[in-house]
Write a structure and sequence with these properties.
The chain has 161 residues and is mostly helical. It has one domain: Butyryl-CoA Dehydrogenase, subunit A, domain 3 (Up-down Bundle), CATH 1.20.140. It is built from seven helices and no strands. The radius of gyration is 16 Å and the shape is globular. It starts with a helix and ends with a helix.
């Protein structure tokens, strides 16, 4: 492992830590498990000899795999944190009650739909990057996203009527 390798991962983490945490939290539903997953993923990446050209999907895929492992390991725990309970200072004037309502509704979606929405909206990924992260086709990633958004629209209309 070279110093460039370490520096590349450090810069990537600094630029994307909130998105990585949000993503890991959406998968694990536990703050501690999300933090552990990110730590585990970066620890493993630091031990690799080289990094791929498309770093963003690779890092998110590594975090995804670690988060799934963490979630499975902690599956017996019943308390889950909201993916919106991350950083109140980043609220940007949005209604906290609406955010909690949306967080609850996100949990009603399939894992694939929820994960695609989190990657697209909260991590700002393209469908190409989501597809690479999830090892699926672009059409599949886009389909999960659209289907999840439509379910959220229907649920939000139903709760607001």
């Amino acid at each position: 492992m070279s110093e460039d390798h370490v520096e590349t991962l450090r810069r990537f983490y600094e630029a994307n830590r909130n998105e990585l945490y949000t993503y890991a939290l959406a998968l694990t539903r536990s703050r501690e498990a999300a933090e552990d997953a990110i730590h585990t993923a970066f620890g493993k990446m630091l031990k690799t000899w080289s990094l791929p050209r498309e770093l963003r999907p690779y890092v998110f895929r590594c975090v995804r795999n670690a988060a799934i492992d963490e979630h499975r390991a902690r599956a017996r725990e019943s308390l889950h944190d909201s993916p919106f309970a991350i950083d109140e200072s980043r609220n940007n004037g949005h209604d906290p009650e609406l955010q909690h309502q949306l967080a609850d509704l996100l949990l009603t979606l399939s894992d694939d739909e929820r994960e695609s929405i989190m990657l697209k909206i909260y991590s700002g990924m393209t469908f190409h990057e989501i597809a690479a992260t999830r090892s699926v086709s672009i059409n599949t990633a886009a389909s999960w996203y659209r289907r999840g958004l439509e379910k959220l629209r229907v649920l939000m209309r139903g709760e607001n009527e």
